[in-house]
Structures are given as structure tokens and as C-alpha cells.
Amino acid sequence: MPEHAQPDVKTKLDAQQPFAEKPKPAKPNVPPELLLPYPVFETPYVLSVPKEGLVPMMDPLTQAMPMKHWADQGLLPPPMYERGTREQRISAYELTLDASNMYAGMLKGDEKTQYLKERLHALDTFNDSLAKTDPQADGKRVPNQLIDNARPLIETLERQPAPENAPVTGARNPEGAAADNGRDWNSELGIPQYRTQSDNLIPPEASCNMTSLAMALERMGYGRDDAMGAIDRNLRERYLGELQAQAKRNKSDPSTLPKTAQDVALPDGYFEGRVKDYLKSIDDGASKPYQGVRGKDTNERAWDAIADQYKDKAQFEDTLDFLRYLTKAGSRTDLDTVTPKLLQAIEPDAEKRPTYRSITPGRGGWTSARGELDEVLSEGGAAMLSFHHKGGGNTAASHIVSVQQMTKDGLVIDDPYGRVRDSYRLGEVGDAYGEKGQAGRSATRKNLVDPSVRRDLPGTIDSDWTATAGQNLRTDESRGSSSTVSDATMSRAWRSLRFLEPAKPHKPQDNANTPAANAQQ
């Protein structure tokens, strides 16, 4: 007999085989859904796979609706959204977003564009419904637990072409969705675009600070348009000052000058000239090519090419650094000095302006820091984490990432450089972006630079630094998107946590208790 063959077994009572088949137990009178290893509302999709591709089918067990309906209703009866705890409602909506992303992948053309816009409007509506029942929610930022699920909807919409003959109202934000007239859903919903520092104009190897700050600001509702508005205000004030100084030198009538910066019209080439000055200053301050514009040697020809395109194409993080330069806010490596000044420039209204603060290990351990981080994120704030990444106990260098959300034993981060090794420990030899025991970086962990960058030609400039390129990252350019780091990694390696928190509403003053009112009594 072959090793795995089985003899025939009879199932009826037989004189040669004195045993009977064991009777099957009666089926319990229990609803089928209670026998599932997971709640019925988490039942996975049922899909058929015909020649034309995936098609949603009716689940024979739960009689659930096809996936398009699930994407509309959230894989749950709609009333579920109106009851339960805040966390239960958010968890349910994660399924909605996942289903929406899958269904969107089956659509094409204008139908796809329309569906994505509908889903983002539905997310906005859901967020408003949370704000009505939860004092912690302000309706401006979606819960941070939904960032990773909602971000693909925005990314997909941004890659859709603008409809033919679509009317254009106002200047389009290059970081918005061309298919939605340049609407910037990232800042509108507080869902930061994942940003890699490797494609920046400013030194790609040394711009984790501005890149992480851009993601934190988007979480707070500020985007590229806000930075460009602050740049425009600064340049108008600067040019008005130049006109006033010139009038004083020439002893001309100052009444002929614009009354305020708002009345100033910048002359042709003025904006581009200041961009060129800025780019030249970066290269003048670089002791090595990687510290220069695009991480290479550049010359005046390249600066002219960039300056001509900057207003319409530069990414948010690069415009932030240009604003830092114009406002003399300080070194980009000193976020504690730079951030408050940039916030003041971007949000002139002090009552609306987010507040900024930082904490360090000297104030307590990682457990205490996690407690503060959890409070900030749950109240709609943003956070940036600075940590030592060299290994071997080296605390001379640090890296900054944007914190997306917390997990049971770590964090979900948007790391502008790449993906941290799970086993990284500060006290052990080995870079956070290398393999265990490897002093340098691994090409499979860091975000790669677009190969179109010609480092041997100073006068050339690629297009990978533009906003459009930033919306179309390849997989090897976005390894740090929604990546995870453990508490075991950060408990010794963290250097600081920097928080942006929503402005606290001012309580209306009680007129009955004002000095004037008291004087009248």
C-alpha cells in the first residue's frame, strides 16, 4: 500500500465491521452571524472574478448590498453612524473609506472623478456629524485615525485630468485637484499629503524639517495657497519699503506712493528676482553639493529656469522655506524659532493662529510623552517627532517626521526620508535606514531620488521638484508614507516632540463685569 493511501471504510453496521457511524449533532438554533469569528458588520466583501474583472456580488450569508452601496453607506446600516461611541463610528467609517477606494479603482474617466468628489464630500459631511456630537471635534479636521484610509481618495482625484472645457474660476492651486478646479482637499479636511524630502528644491538630504512642517500645517488646515499669500504680502511690504526709501533719497512727494502694501502692484520680474536671490543664497551657503539646490551643483542658468516656474509649480515645503528666507525667521534646522514666525506670517489673525510648543525627554520619559501626544492628536492637533537616527549611541544628528496617529505600542508616521528599520535601537550600531549592523543607509529603505536629476550638469534642472511630480510619487519615492515605528525604537531615540494645537476660542467678555460697567453702577 502506498504510504498515504487509506483503506475503504464502511459507514453502516456490518458483521465484519462491528461499529456504526456516529450520528451528526443537530444544528443549533443560532443566527448564522453569531457563529462568525468577527462581527457581522465587518464581514468582508464578496467578489466574483469574471473576464471583465472584479464585480461586487450579494453576500449569501449576510445579504449585504453590493460594494457600491457599501461605499455609500459604510458597510453598515446608515443608522449606525448616528449611534455608538465616537471611536465606534470612526472605526465603522474606516470600512467605508476602504470600500470607496476599492470601488474607485474599478471606475474610469469622468465617472471616476465624480465618484471621488462625492466620497470626499460624504467624508466632510460625516466629519460635521461628529463635530455636532463631540465637543473635541471642531469639524475642520477629520479624525486622525482616518488619514491613512482617506488619503488615497485625494491622491487618486489629484491624478485625474481636468474635464475638457471646464470653467476656471480664479488661479488654480497646483497642489489641488485639477479635476476639481484646483480644490485642495488635503488642507480643507486636514489630511496631509504625504511628502518626500527627496524631491525638494531645498537640499533634499537636509529638508526633513520643512517637509514635516508642511504636513503638520496641512493637518491644521493650512496649505500652499496660505504660504504663497504670506509670500505675496511680504514682497508687497518689501517693495513699498523700497519705494519709500527711494522717494526719501530723491526727495520726491511721498503722497504719490501706495498708501498700504495691499495697494502695491509688484513690477514684472520682481517675484522671480527674489526667488533667484533665495536659490543663490542656498548654494552660497553649501559647502558640499548635496547641501545645494536639488542636492547638486547649480548655476545661474538653472536658477533662472526655476525662478520662471516657481510661482506656478513649487511644492508647499519649498514655498515655506522661501518664506523663512524672506522673513528672516532663522535657520531651517531650528524649528523652535522658525515655526512661530512662519505661523505668524501664514495666519495674520492671532485669534485663529495655531499655538506651538515642544517637549523633550528632560520633562519625562517616553510614556509621559505618549500621553501628551495622545491628548494633542485627539484634540485635532498635529505633531512632529525628532529622533536620533545614526545608532551606536550617536546623538549628534537627528531627523524629523510627521506623526499621523498612535498605535497600541508605537506610532504611525509620515517619514519624509524613508522607512525606519523595526529593530533599530539608538544604543546599537546601525543606521535607522540601514540594515541591522549597517552604518550607512539601505537603498531599499530610503526614498529614492528621481533618476532624471543630472548631477553632472549645473545648468540643467529636472521637473521632479514640481507640485505635479509630488502628487505622482512612485512606490520607491514614498516608502515613508504611513510607516510605523515602535515604542521600543523611540523610547531612547526620541529627541523632542513639537506640537501645533488649534487656537483656543476666546470667551466673550461679560459686559456686566467690565470696568466701564462697574463705573456706571
Describe this protein with a few key phrases.
single chain; about 525 residues; alpha+beta; 2 domains; six-stranded antiparallel β-sheet; two-stranded antiparallel sheet; about 35% helix; about 10% strand; globular; disordered C terminus
If you had to describe this structure to a student in words, what would you say it looks like?
The protein has helices at residues 67-73, 86-104, 109-133, 147-158, 185-189, 208-219, 224-250, 270-284, 300-313, 316-327, 335-346, 366-378, 467-470, 487-493, 515-520, and strands at residues 47-48, 55-56, 355-359, 382-387, 399-407, 410-414, 483-486, 494-501. It contains 15 helices and eight strands. Helix content is 36%, strand content 8%. The strands form two sheets. It has a six-stranded antiparallel beta sheet. A two-stranded antiparallel sheet has the order 1-2. It is globular and about 70 Å long. The chain has two domains: 32-163 and 172-189, no CATH class; 197-501, no CATH class. The model is unreliable at 1-15, 17-22, 30-66, 76-80 and 514-521 (pLDDT under 50). By secondary structure, the protein is α+β, with helices and mostly antiparallel strands. Strand 1 (47-48) and strand 2 (55-56) form a beta hairpin.
